[in-house]
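Let's practice the habit of predicting before peeking. Look at the sequence and jot down your guess about where helices and strands might fall. Then scroll down.
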Amino acid sequence: MPSGTYTLLIELEAATRIDVGALETFDFDAGWYAYTGTAFGPGGFKRTDRHRDVAAGRNEARHWHVDYLLGADRTRIDAVCKTRDVDAECRFTDRIDGRRLPGFGASDCDCGSHLVYNPSRERLLSSLQTVHDRCELESGGSE
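Done guessing? Here is the structure:
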């Protein structure tokens, strides 16, 4: 199974407050989010299928910060951008256009966040495609 760095393009239809496990409670604005992670374990990019299952309500387990966002009502994965054989979640997140949510998804590294908010889908998607210079873009499939 191919592996590398991926970014989920997530839509949150309405502002909401979400308890994110042991991290804290976040007030999420309605709009667009980009969550970047890596998938280098034995399943590789199959991890993105798990994220789709959480967003679609087919998996209730909450292992990562992003699971709490994806499991919230009125949240969906719009697209997934994958770059094979590259380990760059911190570097990619740092270059995505938008506001970072402090501490989100970054408990195992030194960067500040792996989640970026931008009210504009087009700006966020354009930024993702620039950051992932070899982006394999897939539809979200979380509906």
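How did you do? Residues 101 and 115 are 6 Å apart (CA to CA).
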